[in-house]
Design a protein that fits this description.
Strand content: 15-25%
Number of helices: 14
Radius of gyration: 33 Å
Distance between the termini: 99 Å
Helix content: 25-40%
Oligomer: single chain
Structural class: alpha/beta
Length: 490
């Protein structure tokens, strides 16, 4: 073959374009210099593309703001270690696998700087997904409290000290003494149930949540007319609660028409909590960073939890409202309080109830029966002596007059033999029931039983007396036995 020269390159058939390689009807033209936003594109197409970009930006911003708000709410819940699933107190552990038990406390901080639990209720969700059982513990249930690590309710932190064990105290003192860990330990020791969630909600904070959200829409089964607080909500059905009204609804314990248990109180508290969380987790609230931030600040100072975020807390509140139709059961107690004014657990019936919950067996009839509705003395049948142990002159006469105004009988009115800081109700065992009524009327007083005395009922006013005297309605069979109105609200 002859060698090729430089001029022969153009004659190489491999360099000749094949006409079959070129499209016949679609010649390739230059891309506009402006790319997809070139002026060569029509105005309508350009507007559509800008609209698509704007929508994408709006969606992105909304998702970012909503996610940030939700994250802020979750982070606002003060998490404190309290659960102990490996506790030796847990019984029938294999049978409990897959079930969930969430302990929820309602705490009223307005009664002092170191509050106990106002309501104590446990939601039991069986492993098979059946009906949820709501188990309520009377706040005056007498227990033997184990030693617990100290708790500072003001800071929401444990202390570097141990609170000694105490016999013959009440279950509501567990949270006051040792915080979440002590409350969980006591409930696990009583029931043998393994707790998987815990939350303590400040009842005063529920009112603040209503204010932060601009009101809470809540449906109530009956008017909230309380023997102590008066008329809080005059009618049943849908209503909007402001800060003050919401705070009254969650504290109203002596409401006309409530059952003899705490079911009515627990139901109202959970309705308000569910409405607050539902409102805070709604799309409009999450997209409003100012409102979400305000609610998050209230949440941060109102909720202490372990193992629960905002969504889980909302689900628990809905469960405790009775969504799903599960039973509401109160821990079985004796017909009458003991000489210390405390409720005594019926051990055999309570053990059968707790075992049924642990093993998934039906709740025994003896355990689910309502507690005794033994009558409570009316204030008009009670005569109490009033003594002044404070530094305020004439305090005994002033309080005696106010007690008469709410129908109490007054015995002697005098000065105590020595000054005292505490306000106490001193009573003998035979007048324990009357002492309970006086304690309800004078919330700042501490009850002290004198086992050696007889016929004694004294109100000794110390420097701690806060000036509050409450009216106490007489107990009636209708009030004690009425159940929740069904179907009034969902």
């Amino acid at each position: 073959m002859e060698p090729r020269t430089a001029g022969d390159e153009d004659d190489d058939p491999r360099d000749t374009p094949d006409p079959r390689d070129e499209p016949e009807d679609h010649p390739v033209g230059p891309v506009p210099a402006g790319g997809p936003w070139s002026q060569d594109i029509g105005h309508r197409a350009r507007r559509l593309r800008w609209a698509a970009v704007a929508v994408a930006l709006v969606v992105f911003v909304a998702m970012t703001v909503g996610w940030s708000s939700k994250l802020g709410l979750d982070e606002g819940i003060h998490q404190v270690a309290g659960l102990d699933p490996e506790s030796a107190a847990v019984l029938d552990a294999d049978a409990q696998a897959g079930s969930h038990n969430v302990l929820l406390l309602g705490v009223d901080t307005t009664t002092g700087a170191d509050p106990g639990a106002d309501t104590i209720v446990l939601a039991h969700v069986p492993a098979d997904g059946g009906a949820v059982t709501r188990l309520s513990f009377p706040r005056n249930l007498e227990i033997n409290r184990p030693p617990c690590q100290g708790w500072d309710a003001a800071t929401g932190a444990y202390l570097d000290q141990t609170v000694p064990a105490e016999t013959r105290t009440t279950i509501d003192s567990a949270y006051r003494s040792g915080g979440p860990a002590c409350a969980v330990r006591v409930v696990q020791q009583l029931t043998g149930l393994s707790l998987s969630g815990f939350a303590a909600v400040d009842l005063g904070g529920l009112g603040d949540m209503a204010g932060a959200l601009g009101g809470l829409p809540v449906c109530l089964d009956r008017p909230v007319v309380d023997g102590v607080l008066g008329t809080v909500v005059p009618g049943a059905g849908e209503t909007s609660l402001d800060t003050t009204t919401a705070a009254g609804v969650v504290r109203a314990r002596h409401v006309q028409g409530d059952p003899g248990t705490d079911e009515g109180l627990v139901d109202r508290q959970q309705r308000v909590l569910a409405a607050a969380l539902d409102g805070a987790l709604s799309t409009p609230a999450l997209l409003n960073p100012w409102r979400s931030h305000a609610f998050g600040q209230v949440l941060a100072r109102s909720v202490v939890a372990d193992g629960m975020d905002a969504d889980q807390l909302l689900a628990t509140a809905l469960t405790l409202r009775g969504i799903g139709g599960g039973p509401f059961v109160t821990v079985p107690t004796s017909a009458e309080n003991n000489s210390r004014g405390n409720a005594m657990m019926r051990d055999r019936d309570a053990s059968a109830l707790f075992k049924a919950l642990r093993t998934g067996a039906p709740i025994p009839d003896s355990a689910s029966a309502p507690p005794s509705t033994a009558s409570v003395p009316s204030p008009s049948t009670i005569t109490v002596d009033v003594l002044n142990a404070s530094q305020r002159q004439g305090l005994a006469q002033e309080v005696a007059s106010r007690l008469r105004a709410v129908t109490f009988g007054i015995g002697s009115v005098s000065n105590a033999s020595r000054p005292a800081a505490d306000t106490v109700i001193r009573f003998s065992p035979d007048r324990a029931a009357e002492a309970q009524v006086v304690a309800s009327a004078v919330p700042s007083a501490r009850s002290v039983a004198d086992a050696t005395a007889s016929g004694v009922l004294q109100l000794v006013l110390g420097d701690s007396f806060d000036g509050m005297i409450r009216a106490i309605p007489p107990n009636s069979p209708a009030t004690a036995t009425a159940g929740l109105t069904s179907g009034a609200c969902s």
